[in-house]
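A reminder before we start the practical. When you read a complex entry, don't treat the lines as separate problems. The point of joint prediction is that each chain is placed relative to the others, so the output describes one connected object in space. Small molecules and nucleic acid strands, if listed, are placed in the same frame. In the example below there are two entries. Take a minute to note the order of the lines before looking further.
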Amino acid sequence: MAQEALQRKKVHDSGEILDHLLNLDDQKRLIQTQVEQNQATLNARAKAIGTAVQQGQHEHAVELKSEVAQIKQENASLENRLHELQEAIQNQLLRLPNLPHASVPHGHGPAENEVVFLSDPSAESTHRELPHWEIAQQYKLIDFELGVKVTGAGFPVYLGAGARLQRALIQYFLDFNVAAGYTEIQPPILVNEDSGFGTGQLPDKEGQMYYVTEDRLYLAPTAEVPVTNLYRDRLLQENELPVLNTAYTPCFRREAGSYGKDVRGLNRLHQFDKVEIVQIVHPDHSYSVLEKMRDHVQSLVASLGMPFRILKLCGGDMGFASALTYDFEIWSAGQGRWLEISSVSNFESFQTNRLKLRFKDSQTGRTRLAHSLNGSALALPRVLAALLEFYTDSKGIKIPAVLQPYMQTDFIPKP
RNA sequence: GGUGAGAUGGGUGAGUGGCUGAAACCAACAGUUUGCUAAACUGUCGUACGGGAAACUGUACCGAGGGUUCGAAUCCCUCUCUCACCGCCA
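Here is the predicted structure of the whole assembly.
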């Protein structure tokens, strides 16, 4: 069953890996039993020596000591082997992706994703003259060249109304999330190695993250990492669930090896802004919560008034840690293509297992792993791209109604 | 960067070699009692892994890793982190 599920996530040698794991586990158990039996004997002997010495039976004590020495020696090599096996199992396990939910479509890539919502059947026939990078230049909203000078490609500089538009989007998104019950968080943007493992970026995405060698810290690729890790090593009471957090952070991605028109303008950046929502919930409710998060993001995207669609990702296109993912794509009217602006996922216990994030089940009294979910609400650059393309006409840029209070205007006239 | 102190269960916090998986208190849970709430009383109450159908039982864990010892939360070494004071600084 696990093998079939793994194959859906494009783990081709899943059979081998699982056989190997099961084999390792059998060996481990066998040796663990032996080691523990020996240790039980040692513990008993230690006690016996104690009483023997107290009662002045020194010869008996000496006898016992030599016996202990022998068992210890025997156990040393067994323990070494046990540690080796445990490490091997851990390494294998860390490299195994989360299993997809039963409803996840089969498939290898974007072509097999399932469109589950389309805001407007004629979306793809919506065309505008200019791509956003030309609008941004004309209106002096973004200067890509300046960013290259200061840092490098993929680090745009937002200017004037462009900068204000960024701030308006961030604030609107945060306010929208807070109104839905999310608590706003301002987390650190640099995270340590443990946090990277906690949410599953490590070891899977080593090399995708910027790394500060001097202090051994990673630049967060998404607020998901610091915000979810807030709850690492926590044992929550059941009544503390669900946890709803939202956070705005810049996000940093190295994204090596990408080039061409797919990455022009705001399509793909090394630094970008994103407002994230994170929930930590009772495992029995995580899928109904996922649907609620999907609805929440849907109404947020819809409020911007542009064509968009929702995809249920197929196994091959899903992330390492996810069990079920909905992607939101907005129509880029100037480029004639869909752009991903949000990804909403249920990670089930994949992250919480690594995080040791548990709660006390009030019915059974047992500790159980919570489930974690997150989603973008929303990622800025492609929203801005689509917005500029969709709302610009020969006279200027119309500001969508929901952003007008933050922009303090409804229109940016053509210069 | 310098100096000093520290790291124990959900929390506070005792514990300097065997009687400590760990006192006490708080929180939590179950029950008793008073009409509800509150209070009081009684009891339960760490985690992981192994064995067992289960009752239960074995092992490990007192920041992490090593060492001394028959025996380590307790002694020694290394590392990490936290706190305080000083220096520097938005």
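Discuss with your neighbour: The radius of gyration of chain A is 27 Å. What might explain this?
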